[in-house]
From TrEMBL:
Belongs to the TonB-dependent receptor family. The keyword Amino-acid biosynthesis does not apply. GO terms for cellular component: cell outer membrane. It is a multi-pass membrane protein. It is found in: Cell outer membrane. Residues 470-838 form the TonB-dependent receptor-like beta-barrel domain. It comes from Rhodohalobacter mucosus. Signal peptide: none annotated. This is SusC/RagA family TonB-linked outer membrane protein. It holds the Pfam family Plug. Keywords: Cell outer membrane, Membrane, TonB box, Transmembrane, Transmembrane beta strand, Transport.
């Protein structure tokens, strides 16, 4: 491929053709795609004269007679300047740049070359991140790492992603991986803008994560932010300016299928004289814009990068979104002849949040389609019905907003007093605060009317301190044996406090929730309607001592071992300290035989133990309550358990990393088993020994088997075209081996009318995630009730959900909430200056309970005046009674084009002011192929319960109850993004 701009005929005639071959200096292999540029051609001719080498490494270029130097470059090799000196044949040998070829992977407390990794570790750099309207940094990784599941079901901009690594690791707290940002353990991922992330390394198995002890049981995600580097600065102190920005438009991908006004009237619904599309009214095209400006540069001893990010994000639900400003700075200074390196990282984030009300989406589905939005006098129309509210009035009358702030900094020092010895220290502080306010005026039927106005305030502050220091020494101890020894100390301390206030009976609506002090509930003394909760944790401390040994023998056999001894104030005095060992070994067996097609075949085996701490404090201690009744009494609410200890996970991982055909085909295969023991759960205990009747104990065990596969293939290479394709695949199965109850039903369907319907069965010795219920026969009784199948053949039907676990009940597993396997397929195509990236994703084998259908599909003549009806091709004629069964459990397999990006890189070689200009367009959720009739077939990995119109839904998710598609889910969006990246 030759390139040039503005060449005239006279210039072209005064040239000499130069040909040759570009090869690897180490093995003599040709290098296709190397860039050859005539130095000074831009100034001499007004354009850059250049070409690229062909598949056999050959090239041909016309060089002006007055120019004499070729600049030859290739990724992973040292750029050369070659003098022509009158020659017409110039062969070029490029030396590998060892610093670039030795891919470095961030691991706990240090880095390793990729070839030395013996654990299950995956790395994703900026080039492989998901593109488009990404407001949650976790979404950069969705579908990119085998075994890592990142979902933001529905796409609510104010809801964080659910992250699972290799499935479920506990039934308590810490179900998501530990986040480490620039060495700061437990850092807030929301405080780093996606535009500022350089790369992410994922420690998947226990042998890699054990160095983090109790914090690493659910895996570890190591985030490295962008830094300045010495290439961005020079002795004159030049700087670089980068701008990244985009505008996106989010549109509702699917609406719930409901009756039109005409269909509703024909089905017997009450005609109120209007035609209203409520789902259309409460949704919108959410236009967002994001801007990131970064300045980087430096001099010989100091480099820096400072960035500012602004996000104005709007969701598809009216009045939902946020405005955020984030600033981040990194400064690195070298001193003492480069033996001392000091690094400062600092960032701050402020996010102003409009939560709106997801209930507006729910009631837009079921509200009467013939009802007007307002009466003629301008007041909102409102039917006096149970669980039935004007959807537009919900978000226009009421207020639900908040603010989050975060500040964090860390100072790192690395001192190399002698050769091969490095001493490191890291001190960090992180401050998080959030405040939220809700207000429901006395005119609002939704939560306000019955309380004569209702106001809520919520405040929370968190202060985190980290100090860590460690030293590493590496040397060649005997012939062909290299070793690195690391040892260190870690101190972590957290303090958290919060306050919640709820009161009603407000004399005015003018002051919104700021007038909560005027509440009549407080002034007149109505304690039943006053909710007040305040808390402060003790100073939670974790102290740890850790060490690691990395050994390389003959540059082909690798061994790693680590040990962490850790103590926590959250546990009983008898069990505050725990030990977490790990080891792994690997070898590249391709070194022992000579097969041209195989460039790498590394086998890995790892074993590691990690722990998990409880979420709340004081679970090992006595808990007392106080009552003012009878002159004041104190009673024990929970008994202490001084023997309470860690949850513990033991994991074994066997893996293979391979590279074939000169690494055109690379990949990894991992199989693993993990045992999670000693869940921390509150259980009932005998009152003759424990007066309160309740105590936290270690009770429970999970076992998971899994397999992961990842492969990348450079499928096509030519002068102008490059195509890389990659697949990630993972599957796992989790069995509950021990639990406090042998068998139980969980996850209530909710009101109206199905409050006693639990849908998820959990049983010892069986897989978790079972959707459990009666089987619909396909027939309907004359009274409109469903006919179920007599599963046990005893001649009687016992299908009431309250008897779901009875021996003679007619129930079975109707599906499961966790998929059998997930799949991601990435395609990257480059053609000249064009880039095309298409990412497909799918999940298979899971089911979902379609709760909209379970409530609103049967056409009940008595209730049709109250609620609109969902209509699907699964509806059964004549069915008028809603009762949970297999009818509403649907297979939810899907394949979707998750993200497709088309980009163009402008040639700016002749424009001195610019380093790069890249424009792109991205379409997210382009299409979905599925038979699921609901809005979104994505797996639901946890359950927060049915909608509570009191508004206080539990913040704790039930991770054992998967597969329920609730009625309070945000609508999924399809998003079109236009972006621009400019480098000055």
């Amino acid at each position: 491929m030759a390139f040039g701009i503005g060449l005239n005929e006279a210039q072209a005639q005064n040239r000499v053709e130069v040909t040759g071959t570009v090869i690897d200096a180490t093995d003599g292999e040709p290098l296709p795609g190397a860039t050859i540029i005539v130095q000074g051609s831009s100034e001499a001719t007004g354009s850059t004269i250049g070409t690229t080498s062909l598949m056999d490494g050959t090239y041909s270029i016309n060089v002006p007679e007055n120019l004499n130097v070729l600049v030859v470059s290739f990724i992973g090799y040292i750029t050369q300047e070659v003098e022509i000196n009158g020659r017409t044949t110039v062969d070029i040998e490029l030396e590998p740049d060892i610093r670039q070829l030795a891919d470095v992977v961030v691991v706990g407390y240090g880095t390793q070359e990729e070839r030395e990794i013996t654990s299950a570790v995956a790395s994703v750099d900026e080039e492989r991140f998901n593109q488009g309207n990404v407001n949650d940094s976790a979404q950069l990784l969705q579908g990119k790492v085998a075994g890592l599941n990142v979902t933001n079901r529905g796409g609510n901009p104010n809801a964080g992603s659910t992250i699972r690594l290799r499935g479920l690791s506990t039934v308590g707290a810490n179900t998501e991986p530990l986040i480490v940002i620039d060495g700061v353990i437990g850092a807030d991922l929301a405080n780093v803008d996606p535009s500022d992330i350089q790369s992410v390394d994922v420690l998947k198995d226990g042998s890699a994560a054990a160095i983090y002890g109790t914090r690493g049981s659910s895996g570890v995600i190591l985030v490295t932010t962008k830094k300045g580097n010495y290439d961005t600065g020079d002795p004159e102190g030049n700087i670089r300016l980068d701008y990244n920005g985009y505008v996106s438009a989010a549109m509702v991908e699917n609406q719930q299928p409901v009756m039109s006004a005409t269909e509703y009237i024909e089905a017997g619904g009450n005609d109120l004289g209007s035609v209203t599309d409520w789902q259309d009214l409460v949704t919108r095209t959410g236009v967002s814009n994001v801007h990131n400006i970064a300045v980087s540069g430096g001099t010989g001893n100091t480099i820096y990068r400072v960035s500012t990010n602004f996000r104005d994000v709007n969701g598809v639900l009216e009045q939902s979104g946020f405005r955020q400003i984030n600033a981040r700075a990194n400064i690195t200074h070298n001193a003492l002849d480069d033996r001392l390196t000091l690094t400062l990282n600092a960032s701050t984030t402020r996010r102003d949040i409009d939560n709106s009300f997801e209930e507006a989406l729910r009631y837009a589905v079921l509200y009467n389609p013939t009802a007007p939005v307002r009466f003629d006098n301008g007041e909102f129309f409102q039917a006096i019905l149970f669980d039935n509210f004007n959807p537009v009035a919900i978000y226009e009358q009421n207020v639900n907003e908040g603010q989050r702030k975060a500040i964090n900094y860390n100072v790192q020092a690395q001192f190399d007093p002698i050769e091969n010895l490095s001493i490191n220290a890291n001190i960090a502080r992180q401050f998080n605060s959030q405040s939220f306010g809700e207000f429901y005026p006395s005119t609002s039927f939704f939560r306000g009317l019955n309380r004569n106005g209702l106001a809520r305030r919520y405040f929370e502050d968190r202060d985190f301190t980290l100090f860590e220091t460690y030293a590493s020494y590496n040397d060649t101890f005997i012939d062909r044996l290299d070793a690195t020894i690391t040892g260190g100390y870690s101190f972590q301390e957290t303090f958290q406090e919060g306050l919640t206030i709820e009161m009603g009976n407000l004399p005015t609506n003018v002051q919104s929730y700021y007038g909560i002090d005027l509440s009549g509930d407080r002034v007149l003394g109505n304690p039943a309607n006053v909710f007040l909760d305040s808390y402060a944790t003790p100073d939670e401390r974790i102290i740890a001592f850790f060490g690691r040994l990395n050994v390389t023998y003959d540059n082909g056999i690798f061994f790693n071992a680590s040990f962490r001894r850790e103590g926590s104030t959250k546990l009983g005095p008898e069990n505050q300290w725990g030990s977490f060992p790990a080891f792994s070994i690997g070898t590249d067996i391709s070194r022992f035989f000579d097969i041209d097609a195989i460039t790498q075949m590394k086998i890995r085996l790892g074993y590691g133990v990690t722990g998990a701490l409880p979420g709340p404090n004081g679970l090992a201690q006595d808990l007392y309550t106080y009552s003012f009744a009878g002159g004041g009494t104190v009673s024990k609410a929970r008994d202490a358990n001084p023997d309470l200890k860690w949850e513990e996970k033991t994991e074994i991982n066997l893996g293979v990393d391979f590279g074939l055909f000169e690494d055109r085909l690379t990949g990894a295969l991992d199989v693993y088993t993990r045992d999670i023991d000693d869940f921390i759960l509150e259980i009932a205990v005998p009152t003759d020994q424990f007066p309160s009747g309740t105590q936290f104990q270690n009770a429970g065990r999970l076992r998971t088997y899994g397999l992961e596969f990842q492969v990348n293939y450079d499928a096509y290479q030519s002068q102008n075209v490059f195509w890389n394709t990659g697949i990630v695949f993972d599957t796992y199965s989790t069995e509950l081996e021990e639990f406090i109850i042998d068998e139980q039903m969980r996850a209530n369907l909710g009101s109206p009318g199905q409050n006693a319907t639990n849908m998820i069965r959990v049983a010892v010795g069986e897989q978790i995630g079972q959707i459990w219920g009666p089987v619909f026969s396909g027939e309907v009784n004359p009274d409109g009730t469903p006919v179920f199948v007599d599963l046990n053949g005893d001649g009687q039907l016992i299908t009431d959900q309250g008897n779901a676990l009875s021996e003679n009940g007619d129930f079975k597993q109707l599906g499961k909430g966790f998929p059998d396997f997930t799949l991601g397929w990435t395609n990257q195509v480059n053609y000249k200056n064009w880039e095309l990236n298409a990412f497909f994703r799918g999940a298979f084998g899971h089911s979902l309970v379609n709760t909209y259908r379970a409530f609103y599909e049967p056409i009940d003549p008595g209730a049709i005046n109250s609620y609109n009806r969902v209509i699907t091709d699964k509806a059964v004629e004549g069915l008028t009674v809603s009762q949970f069964s297999s009818l509403y459990v649907e297979k939810a397999d899907f394949v979707k084009l998750d993200n497709v990006t088309l980009a163009y890189n402008f040639d700016v070689s002749s424009i001195e002011a610019f380093r790069r200009i890249r424009a792109y367009v991205t379409l997210e959720n382009a299409f979905t192929i599925t038979n699921y009739t609901g809005i979104d077939p994505e797996p639901v990995l946890q359950d927060r319960g049915s909608t509570d119109n009191g508004g206080r839904i539990s913040p704790f998710a039930d991770v054992l109850s998967a597969g329920i598609d609730r009625r309070n889910n945000y609508f999924t969006a399809r998003t079109l993004t236009f972006g621009l990246n400019i480098g000055f």
